[in-house]
Description:
CATH topology of the largest domain: MetI-like fold
Distance between the termini: 45 Å
Amino acid sequence: MKMVRGAWLAFCFFLLYAPILxxxxxxxxxxxxxxGFSGFSWVHYQELWQDTRLLQILxxxxxxxxxxxxxxxxxxxxxxxxxxxxxxxxxxxxxxxLNNVLLVSxxxxxxxxxxxxxxxxxxKLGFLTVLLAHVAFSIPIVVLMVLPKLQExxxxxxxxxADLGAKPTEVLTKVTLPVIxxxxxxxxxxxxxxxxDDFAVTFFVTGNGFSTLAVEVYSRARQGVSLEINxxxxxxxxxAFVLVIGYYAYSQRWQRQKNTKLKEKVK
Length: 267
């Protein structure tokens, strides 16, 4: 039975990662298609370096994602604190339900809604409209990442700080925020990932003068995917891998420090 479970798990991982491995391998193909491997070459990475339009779109996408994730993290953290401190259960459940609407709604509906709203407001489609849309659908993600950390927080720490004369701002900055920092970082990285990955919503609210990587890849894929896209995807996968490892190392370090402090308190 254990062998069957192991084989099934290996099969699932194969289905998940085989297409990614296929993409990475063919980024080093000397040929121009993915039908046959002609030999190892860096030619598509050289083409990528010379494609100034694609590099500019990549830079725009990174700036957009970082800005949207940062704004969404700030607003989402404040929103999580507001929901957590709401005393009335009916109001709290209502706020949580409203927060989850964007998460369960189809991306096409969200994109069309944002397009109608921004057109009604007279906003010119471009960087600003895409930024507003990305911030809007990233906020619920941050709330869901931060709220569990608030619920796990020991309320005795907050009460003790208040009894010792700490002001509300001091309680927030010196007690609450340090405790929920892992949730804030998790929310930031999740918002960053969703912003980088989004296509459907962005497709509705982007204009002729601005494009993101997802929209550009879609436009090029309609004419046949170039292995230059494979090279760019491989680089981004490497960066994502580094970020995941870095966040995991930070989480482990934070957990060890927390355990050390608890042991010192017990002694």
